[in-house]
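User: Reviewer 2 asked us to show a designed sequence for the structure in our supplementary figure. I'm pasting the structure tokens here. Could you produce the per-position amino acids so we can include them in the response letter?
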């Protein structure tokens, strides 16, 4: 067994996984934690990480470092994605994280991010041809593959935080804002999936998809056991997406499964999912929801380094 600590630092949240990985590919998760730090706040507009956002992220990383130290971890890997990838002052962020964690963070390319998402989402599934969709705060990854092998991977600069800041100024969003965002998404997504062979398994991962799933299931609390592995009809998922887009933020905050740090940006994320389900060539009528994602992929790849 190798005890691995993986940290996924995205545009909206930072997450920690400590897991024991066996040589046969088995995994025994010991800790999963998530905090919303909004590292990417304003990056789409300024091209820089805000000092306050860096400090929020460093504070949580310091707490994660204490946990990692207490658990006798063999390998630690810290990966940052879209916000750090886009920021011209990413070196300041890397230095601050290295100082508190003792491990230099990796800033993943869009392709590496997509591959980690596919590895995490499919490691425990069968070889069926799949499309893995990871909607983050700053980017969205679309990865096709089968039997553990990636056929194609695309990373697009569309995410819940980025698009909320760019398009959805009103609360709730106006019809014009939603229409403009739909046009923007269709202009990016339709060419991205053009020419694809239809896939028989659509796997949605990460917080936007799991929150939409909780809404579709009308859960009275966030229940990982009911969400992970749920197979939801596409029409039901799209109905939940549009409901969240049109809902005022205050009403979203009152949903019993909603993380407070996601309520203001979930509408844009849900609209990404809705448009992808409209334009992607799918030979399936359902969405398979998974709580195994890039964080698990980071952990599995760390164990092989």
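Assistant: Here is a per-position design you can include in the supplement:
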């Amino acid at each position: 067994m190798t005890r691995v600590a993986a940290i996924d630092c995205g545009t909206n949240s930072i997450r920690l996984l400590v897991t024991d990985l066996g040589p046969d590919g088995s995994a025994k998760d010991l800790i999963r934690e998530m905090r919303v730090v909004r590292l990417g706040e304003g990056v789409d507009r300024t091209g820089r990480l805000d000092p306050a956002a860096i400090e929020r992220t460093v504070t949580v990383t310091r707490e994660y470092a204490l946990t990692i130290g207490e658990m006798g971890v063999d390998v630690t890997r810290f990966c940052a994605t879209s916000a750090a990838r886009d920021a011209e002052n990413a070196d300041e962020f890397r230095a601050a994280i290295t100082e508190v964690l003792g491990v230099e963070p990796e800033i993943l390319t869009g392709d590496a991010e997509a591959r980690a998402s596919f590895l995490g989402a499919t490691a425990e599934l069968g070889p069926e041809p799949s499309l893995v969709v990871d909607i983050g705060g700053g980017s969205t990854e679309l990865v096709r593959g089968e039997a553990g092998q990636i056929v194609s991977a695309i990373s697009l600069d569309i995410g819940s935080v980025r698009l909320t800041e760019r398009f959805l100024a009103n609360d709730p969003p106006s019809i014009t804002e939603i229409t403009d965002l739909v046009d923007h998404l269709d202009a990016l997504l339709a060419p991205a999936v053009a020419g694809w062979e239809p896939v028989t398994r659509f796997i949605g991962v990460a917080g936007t998809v799991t929150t939409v799933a909780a809404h579709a299931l009308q859960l009275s609390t966030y229940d990982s056991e009911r969400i992970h592995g749920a197979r939801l009809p596409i029409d039901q998922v799209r109905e939940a997406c549009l409901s969240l887009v049109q809902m005022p933020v205050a009403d979203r905050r009152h949903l019993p499964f909603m993380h407070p740090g996601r309520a203001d940006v979930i509408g844009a994320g849900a609209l990404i999912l809705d448009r992808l389900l409209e334009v992607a060539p799918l030979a399936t009528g359902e969405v398979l929801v998974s709580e195994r994602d890039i964080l698990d992929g980071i952990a599995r790849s760390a164990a092989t380094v």
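For the response letter, you might also mention the following. The chain has two domains: 2-110, 120-290. The chain has a mean pLDDT of 94.
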